[in-house]
Amino acid sequence: xxTQELAQAFTQLCRDGELDEAGRRYWSDDIVSCEPMEGAMAxxxxxxGVEQKxxxxxxxxxxxxxxxxxxxxxxxxxxxxxxxxxxxxxxxRMSMDEVGLYSVxxxxxxxxxxxxxxxxxx
Amino acid sequence: xxTQELAQAFTQLCRDGELDEAGRRYWSDDIVSCEPMEGAMAxxxxxxGVEQKxxxxxxxxxxxxxxxxxxxxxxxxxxxxxxxxxxxxxxxRMSMDEVGLYSVxxxxxxxxxxxxxxxxxx
Lengths: 122, 122
Prior knowledge:
The structure is a homodimer.
Chain A: H1 3-15, H2 19-26, E1 27-34, E2 43-45, H3 47-60, E3 61-74, E4 77-88, E5 94-105, E6 108-121
Parallel strand pairs in A: 1-6
Antiparallel strand pairs in A: 1-2, 3-4, 4-5, 5-6
Helix pairs in contact in A: 1-2
């Protein structure tokens, strides 16, 4: 499976709302997940931790809508854009605009790195 | 100037149609420019070569419209999205959808790496 093919398949699952399944299917066991913030979420290593992070996120955000753009491919990396309409627990409904940069090795995603575009109250 | 500030200023120049000026102002002299293709354009090193590439591009593409999204920031890197309505010399008018991943060091862009999303005839 080429990076282009993996990128297409991964992005299609995201577009279908199957973000969890996209990770389960294409993350390496050694996946590293990087968020543009300080603290415990900044860098998580290993599938178990990254799955936990996903569970935490879904438990703490009500997702109204996700729009997915891409993928954009270069060599062994690809970019996916996510525009999300969410309500974080106890906060106002908001729009989140971010991109993920994914690095592929041996047919699996070994790193996902998120970039924040903007957040605005809806 | 933080990466966030540089990213905002760079992206605003692009949004204003001043892509050339954005490069002139924020590229390092040692800028490396990477395109997702084989051949001479795959990796160009140094400001002179990258400026030449820009001149070649503008001489060979009629640009009807550029839409700019972002920036999306993480640490010393940021992503900008470009949606272009162009006519390459001797070819049909087309839509190009790509993102640039920019790496910043000492207040200058030291690498730009482009990712192709899709190209469609208009």
